């Protein structure tokens, strides 16, 4: 089990006119490393610049002389690149397909021409509200077309957007508004998720009353559900009213490549979220180029990424990458389980989706319900699948490949972070035969390396901490308001390199496997065991839906292994099954990986973006539930209570 040896090359007939082949990948990769300036200078030409950059890269990752600059004398406007630029040839092409929460409510299709008008009207309205270049605007919206419009309108006038996931509480919203001193908040009356209303405007009202939230001068409110809300005179404005009389044209702000585009807070899997800042030229170049290469984008594709716009995946691969590339992108308001667990698949048929990109957490959840909901839909339009967010268990990978993709769609397992702006490691679909569970190969310009605890490079096959040498245009530029934290967090552990925080293994073929977060690695009697490996072994068992592994202090072994297991629907916990699962892990990985404790988990604590929060599980395993730390980004805090109750007390 430690090494899944089978490989999955793209099926015959997959390649299209622009598919990157293995030979091309090797050639371009070499070019990108040998002469990054030439390589990224050429790539930047895919954008439309007011002034093309002549200085490509100015980077020094040593903490004493630190700088990261890309295209620093270039000038452009991001919204012009995502909308105006397409008007000549694609004015009538669908830019956005909106699929509402309720499958029986009408879906919407918005052309590039219509998108242009909507963006310009809102941009004008924001300017009238006093928003200008460099001002921060918090966006707290449901998954609607206007979420994309809001981002692009900010970009058009040079305002820095900060999207806050619509599922966050008033406190989490207030933390972010306060941290970035937002001048305006854009929200909706209510959101809709699985038929339930989410009180967005009421949450904004509550957030703005919390201590030290004083920066907000105006709130723009989209009418979405028509639900009853309070409007505060002087502060609150209806979107449709402020845009009604604005012209459908708006002079874009001429931005420097290094001017900030947005601030986005990380998921908070490992602690307090960081306000990641991305800039304009480098970010858009990287988002659009990776989107085209990774998804082997074709003009006729219907592309659907199921992430929320509140996460970086929503920014780079729902809005900026696809729209910069003139693609058709789907925005889905709902959830995979509503009205039932065939929703993804029937929606793929409905909109003839050809590229589908989702997260392992969703795949594992849908696997629990078996094949039948998938088989309800034909999925004939699909040609490529993708995954992001966590290591994908090989078992889940195979299900995605065989059941969802009918064995004919390559899977791109994209490893990246909020900090990286775009995908950094991936098996490009026409170039690299995938191995289930592996991120495989670096994207162009990306130089991964593995280091041990002493900072020594690990050569050849081995496992260690994943660092990146050099820079790429989509790299974050700072932690908003705390540049020192940026340097301390990412560039101090291994000076001169970017430390990802992730553990990684390189196999004998030179392919990369993310093993989980470095903080989560379990060290049993000197053997380092990745959480991904343990969890994948458990998920391999026919009765297991999901699992999480953490370490706890052990007198003899240094650390012991504590696992949490969620069973598939209909399976019942028993002592016998517990023993069977422990033996199963032992058999699949080896005696060293035998779990000391196995706790049944009706559900696992996850971030709002669906990632397992192991740091919380670690505290429970360590019998220290009073030290759970920041749980504000937790999706369902009640999950924690029951796990605390049922924990093994040693
Ligand atoms: P925080 O940094 O606040 O703790 P986070 O790391 O979960 O939160 P993100 O930037 O959303 O915030 O997630 C990036 C992380 O997600 C990566 O560092 C990695 O651990 C994990 N990840 C993302 N994609 C993959 C993938 N394809 N394979 C393995 N791990 C992945
Ligand atoms: Mg992180």
UniProtKB/TrEMBL annotation:
- Mark the residues carrying the PTM N6-acetyllysine: 611
Give the EC number(s) listed in the UniProt record: 6.2.1.1
Q: Which reaction does it catalyse?
A: acetate + ATP + CoA = acetyl-CoA + AMP + diphosphate
Q: Which GO terms are recorded in the biological process aspect for this UniProt protein?
A: acetyl-CoA biosynthetic process from acetate
| Annotated binding of ATP, by residue | 389-391, 413-418, 502, 517, 528
Single GO term (MF): metal ion binding
Q: Which residues bind Mg(2+)?
A: 539, 541, 544
The cross-references to Pfam families, in alphabetical order and at most eight, read: ACAS_N, AMP-binding, AMP-binding_C
Q: What post-translational events are described? A: Acetylated. Deacetylation by the SIR2-homolog deacetylase activates the enzyme.
Write down the InterPro entries for this protein, in alphabetical order: Ac_CoA_lig, ACAS_N, AMP-bd_C, AMP-bd_C_sf, AMP-binding_CS, AMP-dep_synth/lig_dom, ANL_N_sf
The first-level EC class reads ligase
The record's keywords, sorted A to Z, are: Acetylation, ATP-binding, Ligase, Magnesium, Metal-binding, Nucleotide-binding
Which parts of the sequence belong to the AMP-binding enzyme C-terminal domain?
Answer: 533-611
Family statement: Belongs to the ATP-dependent AMP-binding enzyme family.
Q: Which NCBIfam families match?
A: Ac_CoA_lig_AcsA, PRK00174.1
Q: What is this protein's name?
A: Acetyl-coenzyme A synthetase
Organism this protein belongs to: Corticimicrobacter populi
């Amino acid at each position: 089990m430690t090494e899944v040896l089978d490989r999955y090359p793209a099926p015959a007939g997959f390649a299209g006119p622009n598919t990157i082949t293995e030979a091309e990948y090797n050639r371009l990769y070499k070019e990108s490393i040998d002469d990054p300036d030439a390589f990224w200078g050429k790539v930047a030409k895919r954008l439309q610049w007011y002034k093309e950059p002549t200085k490509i890269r100015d980077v020094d990752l040593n903490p004493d002389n630190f700088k990261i600059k890309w295209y620093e004398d270039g000038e452009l406007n991001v919204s012009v690149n995502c909308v105006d630029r397409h008007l000549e040839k694609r004015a009538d092409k669908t830019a956005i397909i909106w699929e509402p929460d309720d499958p029986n409510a009408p879906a919407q299709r918005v052309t590039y021409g219509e998108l242009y008008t909507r963006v310009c009207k809102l941009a004008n309205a924001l300017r009238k509200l006093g928003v200008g270049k460099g001002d921060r605007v918090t966006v707290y919206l449901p998954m609607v077309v206007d979420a994309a419009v809001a981002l692009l309108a900010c970009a058009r006038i040079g305002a820095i957007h900060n999207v806050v996931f619509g599922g966050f509480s008033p406190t989490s919203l207030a933390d972010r508004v306060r941290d970035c001193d937002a001048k305006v908040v854009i929200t909706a009356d209510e959101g809709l998720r699985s038929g339930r209303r989410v009180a967005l405007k009421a949450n904004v009202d509550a957030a703005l009353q919390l201590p030290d939230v004083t920066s907000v001068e105006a709130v723009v409110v989209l009418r979405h559900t028509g639900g009853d809300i309070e409007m505060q005179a002087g502060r609150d404005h209806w979107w449709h009213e402020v845009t009604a009389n604005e012209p459908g044209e708006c002079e874009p702000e001429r931005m420097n490549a290094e001017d900030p585009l947005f601030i986005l807070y990380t998921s908070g899997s490992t602690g307090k979220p960081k306000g990641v800042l991305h800039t304009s030229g480098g970010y858009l170049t990287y988002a659009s180029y990776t989107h085209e290469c990774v998804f082997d984008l074709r003009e006729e594709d219907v592309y659907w990424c199921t992430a929320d716009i509140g996460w970086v995946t929503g920014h780079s691969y729902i809005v900026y990458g696809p729209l910069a590339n003139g693609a058709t992108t789907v925005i889905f308001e709902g959830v995979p389980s509503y009205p039932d667990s065939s929703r993804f698949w029937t929606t793929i048929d409905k909109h003839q989706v050809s590229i589908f990109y989702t997260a392992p957490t969703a795949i594992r959840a849908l696997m629990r319900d078996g094949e039948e909901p998938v088989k309800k839909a034909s999925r004939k339009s699909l040609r490529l699948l993708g995954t992001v967010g966590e290591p994908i268990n090989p078992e889940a990978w195979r299900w995605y490949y065989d059941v969802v993709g009918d064995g004919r769609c390559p899977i791109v397992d994209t490893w990246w972070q909020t900090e990286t702006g775009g995908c950094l490691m991936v098996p490009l679909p026409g170039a690299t035969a995938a191995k289930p569970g592996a991120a495989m190969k670096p994207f162009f310009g990306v130089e991964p390396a593995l280091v041990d605890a002493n900072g020594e490079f690990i050569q050849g096959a081995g496992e260690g901490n994943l660092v990146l040498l050099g820079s790429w245009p989509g790299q974050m530029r700072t932690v908003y308001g705390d540049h020192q934290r940026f340097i301390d967090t990412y560039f101090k552990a291994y000076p001169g390199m970017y430390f990802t925080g992730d553990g990684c293994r390189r196999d004998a073929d030179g392919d990369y496997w993310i093993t989980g977060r470095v903080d989560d690695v379990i060290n049993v009697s000197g053997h380092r065991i990745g959480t991904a490996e343990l969890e994948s072994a458990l998920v391999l068992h026919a009765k297991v839906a999901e699992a999480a592994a953490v370490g706890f202090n052990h007198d003899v072994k240094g650390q012991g292994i504590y696992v949490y297991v969620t069973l598939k629907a209909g399976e019942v916990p028993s002592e016998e099954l517990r023993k069977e699962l422990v033996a199963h892990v032992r058999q699949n990985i080896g005696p060293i990986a035998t779990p000391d404790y196995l706790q049944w988990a009706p559900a696992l604590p996850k971030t709002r973006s669906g990632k397992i929060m192991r740091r919380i599980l670690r505290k429970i395993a360590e019998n220290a539930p009073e030290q759970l730390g920041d749980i504000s980004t937790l999706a369902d805090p009640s999950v924690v209570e029951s796990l605390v109750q049922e924990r093994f007390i040693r």
